[in-house]
From TrEMBL:
InterPro entries: Glyco_trans_1. GO terms for molecular function: glycosyltransferase activity. It comes from the Bacteria. Residues 190-346 form the Glycosyl transferase family domain. Keywords: Transferase. Pfam families: Glycos_transf_1. It comes from Methylobacterium soli. This is Glycosyltransferase family 4 protein. The keyword Transferase applies.
């Protein structure tokens, strides 16, 4: 029996978590008789959907390189690293294939070098500075096969040619028929922002942009910001305060994280992804396009790979609330100018980011690892 281990750093149901579930679903479809273990650092909302796919879901300590955890990991956390690497190595050696979802799971990448070419890492992040250098070195050391989720991620990591890293866009499950274009200017535009409240996502930029709108335009827009701050209550409170100080409480409402964002997508006319730091791809923008909702995104990271400006959505400079406000003004005032955008967004989703195309490419990369194992060749050759 083929034994496959899938390792994930999260436990919630945000975009990266849903992407992981979809990858495990692809693996199950490709190897229906395989024994599939899923390893998570904590129990949480992600467990239930995984239990329907995997043979077993295991909760085990993982050595995860999260930015807020680095001071602890660099001190007392180092005492646990040898035990974590040993545990990871035992699991790698008992598996035919190990899929590690993101480069921040350090114990599995360190162990992979002695794991006989069984591992593949799927890189979903674009870190900065010293963190990027450390993760790049970690991947090179690991000898893993490498999948990047966008060209932007591939460029950021700049792996040597001999590693033959490949880009596979995340596939998003089809939510069903395209959402009808109903906005004609006779009611407020419904603008949705969905995702974790963080310095990366740009909720503060969106709030500033709404505050900059001319009064006549601001009164014709409704904004939902959906998500939580993930153990950072101060950041969430700061966003609430910023909305109140700008006098936008009637225009901008905050909603808690939900496992199923479908009702929010079905409400929205436009989805905003005003990221301030590089998104490796931009799952929320792809999900919006799957519903036939045009997204307005920042020109940073992988987001310009998702959205074709002036066709199925809009691309604006990152961190520029003034430019975002200008684009929103045009969207509200001239709905006829983007009447064709919903259909174009849906078509781009179907042709580039549909689940079937991604599944085929992902299966090919995983088969390469299994093939190297069978032939005895080294990873990256």
């Amino acid at each position: 029996m083929t034994r496959i281990t899938c390792v994930h750093q999260g436990f919630e149901l945000y975009g990266s978590d849903r992407s992981f579930i979809e990858t495990v679903r692809v693996i199950r479809a490709a190897w229906p008789a395989a024994w599939i273990d899923v390893v998570l650092p904590r129990s949480g909302p992600i467990v239930a959907p995984l239990e329907a796919i995997a043979s077993r879901v295991l909760i085990e300590p993982l050595w995860i390189l999260r930015r807020r955890e680095l001071p602890r990991l660099a001190t007392i956390g180092l005492l646990t690293l040898p035990f974590a690497v040993g545990r990871a190595l035992r699991r790698i050696r008992s598996s035919d294939l190990v899929y590690v979802n993101t480069s921040v799971v350090a114990d599995y990448l360190l162990a992979a070098r002695a794991g006989g070419g069984r591992s593949i890492v799927h890189v979903h992040e674009i870190p900065e500075g010293a963190v990027l250098k450390a993760l790049r070195a970690l991947i090179r050391w690991s000898g893993c096969g490498v999948i990047f989720n966008s060209r932007a991620t591939e460029r950021a990591f700049a792996m040597p040619a001999h590693m033959r890293a490949r880009v596979v866009y995340n596939g998003i499950a089809d939510p069903g028929p395209v959402k009808a274009m109903t906005y004609d200017g006779s009611r407020p535009l419904r603008l949705l922002m969905l995702g974790r409240i963080s310095r990366i996502k740009g909720q503060d930029v969106l709030v500033e942009a709404i505050g900059r709108l001319p009064g006549a335009i601001r009164d014709r827009i409704e904004v939902r910001i959906v998500g939580g701050a993930f153990a950072d209550a101060e950041r969430e409170q700061a966003l609430v305060a910023a909305i109140a100080e700008a006098g936008l409480a009637e225009r901008v409402t905050l909603h808690p994280f939900v496992a199923d964002p479908a009702p929010h997508f079905l409400w929205a006319d436009v989805v905003a992804v005003p990221s301030c730091l590089p998104e490796s791809l931009g799952r929320v923008a792809i999900e919006a396009m799957a519903y036939g909702i045009p997204p307005i995104v920042s020109d940073i990271g992988g987001l310009p790979e998702v959205v074709e400006h002036g066709s199925g959505g809009w691309v604006v400079p990152p961190g520029r609330a003034d430019r975002l406000a200008e684009a929103l003004t045009a969207i509200v005032a001239r709905p006829e100018s983007w009447r064709a955008f919903p259909a174009a967004a849906r078509l781009r989703y179907q042709t580039v980011f549909g689940e079937a195309a991604s599944a085929e490419a992902m299966r090919d990369q995983l088969l390469r690892v299994l093939g190297r194992r069978a032939s005895g060749t080294a990873p990256g050759t």
